[in-house]
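Response to reviewer comment R2.3. The reviewers asked that we include at least one raw input/output pair. We reproduce the pair for Lysine histidine transporter-like here without editing.
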Amino acid sequence: MGEAVEEVIVHICDYDEEISAGNKNVISLPHQNQIMPTHLTNSLRLSSNTGTNPHSDWLPITASRNGNAFYSSFHAISSGIGFQALMLPVAFATLGWIWGIICLSLLFCWQFYTIWLMIQLHESVPGTRYDRYIKLSKAAFGEKLGKLLGIFPVMYLSGSITAVLFCTLLWSISISKSRPTDISYIPIKHRTDIGTSFSALNAIGIIAFTFRGHNLILEIQATMPTSEKITSCKPMWSGIKFAYLLIALCLFPLAIAGFWAYGNKIPTGVRGGMLYALHTFHQHDTSRIVLAIIVLLVLIHCVCSFQIYAMPTLDNLTFAYTSRKKKPCSKWIKVAFRVFFGCLTFFIAVAIPFLRGLAGLIGGIALPLTLAYPCFMWITIKKPKRFTAMWFINFALGSLGMILSILVSAGGIWNLVHPGIDVRFFKP
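Raw output as returned:
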């Protein structure tokens, strides 16, 4: 029966590829239940879910289904904390204590809820696992729109440990040292109310940009085993709860203690954030070894999280190759893909070193991917009755997320035009 299942899988995969390629000579197949016995259909579904589908085994993300709650926690921490967190005190300098804490808390709870939605949607359709964000987007919004919405906004224990360490060191050292003179905690205001409003929206964009990694949740969950009795949702959710407890213990002290230590003196713009503040105000009264260790921890974390964020791209390159060649990638092809993507990313980083100054704008553009799309995906796939609690909550949050994305993007654009940004290509 195993050989028959494999033959059917290959046949269906070939059929789907020919249909997607526009081959009109392919005769449409009846529903699989009409051409296969029930036990064979169930075996087919189980095989595709557990990773025994040969094509899935060739792809980096689904090559192994041995993940567990611990792995999901480490990966979620590595992908959930990045250099964007170092800009949180900059947002507080604009919003102030009250609104800064309120916005940070609301956005944290909001994105934590949308993560739960995505985990539940991973196996929401019997016999199907949405292993990638783009697949779920296509299933919810259609082939063309789903691909546009999913792509447009653009794994290791060591990565999670270094993230926790450098966040803790930064805020603890900052509050242990003397504060700069003449600091103020009054929110920064501009000459006009419009300027103040756009500045506040840009600050919200900086906070939103801090909460990243939603486009990797499904990929992380895809590495876990599943069955008809025990799905991957439970261990994944357990790992995420632990991960985001640690993330909250990193981000909130970093934002609050950082703003307390530096106030309106926190460096902004391209050379802004906690790391620059520590070197600016405390390089003379802090050991060089400690400063070097912090920079090294940030570097290690960036390298580790880069591998996690690169995985979907490498997976897509591998998928394109295996779909065309009908065979797995050789070792040298895999190396070539990684070298190409690494060099491309390095070139962009050197060519455009001022991306940090675009944090508010990028946060506004990518905000729907984190806060809005998962809510609409839930409505489209789960199809709850209209005006029920879940329908209303997700429709309201999704709509609010789209409106907020437009406003925050406008604030990010204003922040680039009004104060201006120091644009220096190829000058990191």
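The chain is about 70% helix and 0% strand. The chain has two domains: 1-50, 63-417. Further pairs are available on request from the corresponding author.
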